[in-house]
Design a protein that fits this description.
CATH architecture of the domain at 17-136: Orthogonal Bundle
Strand content: 5-15%
Helix content: 40-55%
Oligomer: single chain
CATH topology of the domain at 17-136: Arc Repressor Mutant, subunit A
Radius of gyration: 18 Å
Mean pLDDT: 79
Structural class: mainly alpha
CATH superfamily of the domain at 17-136: Winged helix-like DNA-binding domain superfamily/Winged helix DNA-binding domain
Shape: globular
């Protein structure tokens, strides 16, 4: 895996900066908890499996297993040991990782599907908890190029808030943007 700018053709996450051509490595990312772990470590820095489990609401054992799987494919590495050398801390290889998906369209679509399902589930969970800090939905008439510019502007807008320490009044908040064109046949009558 070499460091490059990333994105799949249609799916950009704030998390990944690695070119992936190995289908097995790419497949390793098609697990929602692994994506959550990468995103959490990217946002907060080194952490133990126990800490990740508490933040993500997953078991320590599950986080530990999935962190080892991410390490197997080079997405995370062991961080410097802390004061308690019995606890293994993990960190992302690159402080601002990005994933460039290339080659295998079926695996790419699967990764994109997992990302959308994961974000949808998180939004629904927030609604069920009554813990939603805002929602936006819009229908706009844009070209593919304009949609790309909107995505870049959105990422530039949120960038200052990413990868920073969380203060007393702050919480980690998930944001998701998708540009999904309506089917062409729906627009022919206009």
């Amino acid at each position: 895996m070499s460091k490059t700018a990333l994105t799949s053709r249609r799916c950009q996450s704030s998390l990944w900066h690695v070119a992936i051509t190995d289908p097995l490595a790419l497949r390793a990312l098609t697990h929602p908890l692994r994506l959550d772990l990468l995103e959490l470590l990217s946002a907060t820095g080194p952490a133990t499996a126990a800490h990740c489990g508490r933040v993500l609401g997953a078991s320590q054992a599950s986080c530990s297993f999935n962190l080892r799987q991410l390490a197997k494919y080079g997405f995370v590495v062991e961080a410097e040991p802390g004061m308690d050398r019995r606890e293994r801390k993990w960190t992302v290889r690159d402080p601002r990782p990005t994933v460039r998906v290339s080659g295998n369209d079926a695996v790419q679509r699967e990764l994109e599907r997992v990302v959308v399902e994961r974000e949808t589930r998180a939004a629904l969970d927030g609604l069920e908890r009554g813990d939603n800090w805002g929602m936006v939905s819009a229908l706009a008439s844009v070209t593919r190029e304009e949609a790309t510019e909107l995505r870049k502007a959105w990422l530039a807008l949120i960038q200052p808030y990413m990868h920073r320490a969380t203060g007393p009044e702050q919480r980690l908040v998930r944001f998701f943007m998708a540009a999904t064109p309506l089917p062409a046949s729906d627009q022919e009558d206009s």
